[in-house]
Amino acid sequence: ARRMAWLLGERPGQRVGFTVRGERAVSPSTVVEVVTTGVLLQRLQRDQELAGVDVVILDECHERHLDADTAAAFLLDLRAALRPELRLVAASATTDAAGWSALLGGAPVVTARGVTHPVDVVWAPPARPVRPPHGTRVDPALLTHVASVVRRALAERPGDVLVFLPGVGEIERVAGQLGGTADLGAEVLRVHGRAPAAVQDAVLAGPSGGRRVVLATAVAESSLTVPGVRVVVDAGLAREPRTDHARGLGALATVRVSRAGAEQRAGRAGREAPGAVYRCWTEADHGRLARFPAPEIRVADLTAFALQAACWGDPDASGLALLDPPPAGALTAAREVLAAIGATEPGGGGARGRGGRRSRRPNSW
Questions:
Q1: Where do the domains of the chain lie?
Q2: CA atoms in the 13 A half-sphere facing the CB of 81
Q3: Would you say the C-alpha torsion 254, 256, 261, 262 has a positive or negative sign?
Q4: What percent of the chain is modeled with pLDDT above 90?
Q5: Region annotation Disordered: residue ranges (predicted)?
Q6: Are 211 and 226 in contact (CB under 8 A)?
């Protein structure tokens, strides 16, 4: 939203506004409101007609986050039952266009080619094998290698460097290995979901004279455009939700990035001028990566999804239009948890008052 407002020469909250958890910038003149999928789900649960909204754009739909898939299903249900004139757009540079077209009822596929610049691919694997990620653990040898590739990129290429790492811990470790501005010859910035807005604003403001190294999680893969970036260094990892069946709990796991994700990351180097991406794996390994990220609905804990479905009035989710149906066993287990804590009626029925309150608190599980 800040980027779009900047392109219009305005501040957020004028023609382009936004709503995220704990912060909102809108006004009577706002015609485009950027929201998170969590905010959209809460709004749909409160107002199932989505009054005052003519078009909903589901951006970066290739990421297949559970909230996004749920929101898409609710919007399709809403359009079929109450708002046939509501327009839905699923947008991404690397998605399964045919699948989304079918889900949206045979919607046309529109290809828009923006201004892009060539991006050289540099394969930069570690000299020695590193241990694969396990849980949230990443081999320190890989992080040391990433830091060395950043130094190499600074020496070989002009412009700012954007580095993709799976989480905050890895960002801090690589930052520590890079050292200060005087040693590196560049300012080191950190961008992640918990970073203060002031830090993100500084990154989005662009270069202020010297070179910058921006260490980022996947939030910069599609959500942010960082001015001045000519080089991307990709560690090749992502952090995604998974179900720990041994404990019966959801947890984050570090996994290999998909080819679609790697393509999105590489594209950040060619937004403003020709650039380069340094991939910390081999070309042969690249061919073995999954084409797209695993849909969260297949692998994540479904308790929050089951509660959203119950509050929507479809406890078993059988009436929801989803690209991938939820695994029957995982959904049954989630519904049993909800019934056990009194969030839904016994026997897997609709949501009780407590469950409705929890559905409006997406991080309460």
A1: 119-291
A2: 13
A3: positive
A4: 63
A5: 342-365
A6: no
Q: Find, among 190, 122, 143, the residue nearest to 162 by Cα.
A: 190
How many Å apart are CA 158 and CA 229, to the nearest integer?
Answer: 9
> β-pairing, 212-216 with 249-256?
unpaired
pLDDT number for residue 355: 47
Q: Which region among 16-30, 33-47, 80-94, 194-208 has the lowest average model confidence (pLDDT)?
A: 194-208
Residue-wise DSSP of 158-169: -SEEEEE-SSHH
Alpha carbons 71 and 26: distance in angstroms, whole number: 22
Which are the contacts of 210, defined by CB distance < 8 A and separation ≥ 6? 181, 185, 186, 187
Residue 61 DSSP symbol: G
Residue 336: CB partners within 8 Å, gap ≥ 6?
Answer: 348
Distance CA 301, CA 101 (A): 27
Q: What is the pLDDT of residues 90-143, one digit of tens each?
A: 998 777 788 899 999 999 999 887 778 999 999 999 999 999 998 889 999 999
- What secondary structure letter does DSSP report for 344? B
Residue 220 in contact with residue 214, Cβ under 8 Å? yes
Round the CA-based radius of gyration of the chain to a whole number and report it: 22
The Cα 201–Cα 190 span in angstroms is 12
Q: Could you tell me how many residues make up the chain?
A: 365
Give the position of tokens 């889900």: 103
CATH fold of 119-291 reads Rossmann fold (3.40.50)
Q: Report d(CA 313, CA 213) in Å as an integer.
A: 48
Alpha carbons within 13 angstroms on the beta-carbon side of residue 179 total 7
Beta bridge partners, 243, equal: 250
d(CA 248, CA 337): 10
